[in-house]
Every structure is written in C-alpha cells, then in structure tokens.
Design brief:
Strand content: 25-35%
Keywords: Ribosome biogenesis
Number of domains: 1
Number of strands: 5
Organism: Comamonas flocculans
Function: Plays a role in synthesis, processing and/or stability of 23S rRNA.
Radius of gyration: 31 Å
Family: Belongs to the DUF177 domain family.
Pfam families: YceD
Structural class: alpha+beta
C-alpha cells in the first residue's frame, strides 16, 4: 500500500524513503504573495510544479534526505521601460537537502553547496514553491522589445511646455518711478 502524501503537510523523511513524487497544476490565486506581485490577475494563471524525494548515500553517514523541486509559472508584471504589461516566465529547478534542526543547518550552511532546510513531518511544500518562484522574479521586469515607442529623453518643446512661466519681479514696478532731483 502506498502512502498518500500532502503538499500542505508533507512528512519529508517518509516522502524521501518512499521515493515519493507529487505534482500539481494550481491557480496562481493559491499563492497569495505571488498573486500580489502580478500586474493583471486572471483565473487562467497557473503554477505547475513537481516534487520528488529521495535518500542519498553519504560516506560514513546515514543517508541524507533530499527533495527536488521543479516549478513554473508565467506572471504578468509591469514593464519598467514602457509601463505596459509583460508576461514573465518563472522557472525553478532546485535540489534541497534536509537536516535535523536549525542549528545543523546553520553549522553546515557555509560549507554546503546545496540549499539546506530543516526536516519536518509537516513541511508546507506550497510555501517552498512560492518562495522559490518569488526569488526567481526579475529585479527589473521588461519586454525584450517594447510593443510601443519609448521616449528616451524629453524634447525641447516638451521642456518649454512644462516650464513654469517666468516669475514677476516685485520691484519691476519701481522702474516706472523716476527719481527727480530736488524741486526748484
């Protein structure tokens, strides 16, 4: 009998021991922080993901618990050049090694090339998927080639139109008064 695993409360060690696999195609609305970043949200936006667990032998040590995560989504963002909507593909493929506790993770982090996470019997895989997709967001989203012409500088005419009218000198009216010498 195969054990059913849940992405919301995953027993990571049991998942790896069973060489378990999970996958999903879910609405972007399930991932609240990711949905908040989206420029125009619509119900067709999806997150596709697959997770696979495995135990890997290590020299002289107990087998290590590993999880492979693959996730993909296409997110509408605001192009920073033309300010229009741009669909940005997000793609994550990463391996994670699980350790017993936070202290072990901190102790091994500097010497480890892989990403380390703390082993849990109620690991939320959806939170990891969302975190990884958020980390894949570009710093400056933009089109390869914007669909509209972009003004790269402000022209002379536009500068003159937007310039404020010249300030009136409050002492200019005094120029109309002539200084006359003493009356004779």
């Amino acid at each position: 009998m195969t054990k059913a695993f849940s992405a919301d409360r995953l027993d990571v060690k049991a998942f790896a021991q069973a060489a378990g696999q999970l996958s999903g195609r879910e609405t972007l609305l399930r991932y609240k922080r990711l949905a908040q970043v989206a420029h125009k949200l619509h119900p067709d936006l999806r997150v596709d993901w697959t997770a696979r667990g495995e135990l890997r032998e290590r020299a002289g040590l107990a087998p290590g618990v590993w999880l492979q995560l693959q996730a993909a989504a296409e997110l509408p963002l605001v192009c920073q050049r033309c300010l229009g909507s741009v669909d940005v593909p997000l793609q994550v493929q990463r391996w994670f090694r699980f350790v017993a506790d936070e202290a072990s993770a901190q102790a091994q982090d500097n010497d480890s090339e892989e990403d380390l996470l703390v082993l849990s019997r109620e690991f939320n895989l959806h939170e990891l998927i969302e975190d990884e997709l958020l980390l894949d967001l570009p710093l400056v989203p933009r089109h390869e080639e914007c669909p509209v012409e972009i003004k790269m500088s402000v022209g002379e005419d536009e500068l003159q139109e937007s310039a404020p009218p010249p300030a009136v000198n409050p002492f200019a009216a005094l120029a109309n008064f002539k200084v006359r010498g003493p009356a004779k």
